[in-house]
Amino acid sequence: MKRPLSGYPTAMATNNRLSNSAKYWGGRAKETLGRLSGNRRTQYEGKLDQAKANAKDAGLDVRNAFRRRRARY
Questions:
Q1: What positions does the domain CsbD-like occupy (predicted)?
Q2: pLDDT tens-digit profile of 20-60?
């Protein structure tokens, strides 16, 4: 696997992004299913899954920003 200039592999970050995206869309589906069936618990679990996936993506963005900044110096 090729390494970018910063020295960190890109495949792992891509896998994390895809995993978070899958969790987000799974949460969307769960929320919709809960809304259609009238089950509030399922609906809120779906919203929670979406929030977790978004938080993980934000964490990846912060981590990558620090890595890019460190790689410049």
A1: 16-67
A2: 999 999 999 999 999 999 999 999 999 999 999 999 999 99
Phi, psi of 5 (to 5 degrees): -60, -30
2 inside domain? no
Q: Which of 64, 66, 51, 69 is nearest to 12 (CA)?
A: 64
Q: How many domains does the chain have?
A: 1
Asked whether residue 31 is domain-assigned, the answer is: yes
* pTM of the shown model: 0.73
Secondary structure, 3-state, 9-63:
CHHHHHHHHHHHHHHHHHHHHHHHHHHHHCCHHHHHHHHHHHHHHHHHHHHHHHH
Domain of 42, in residue numbers: 11-71
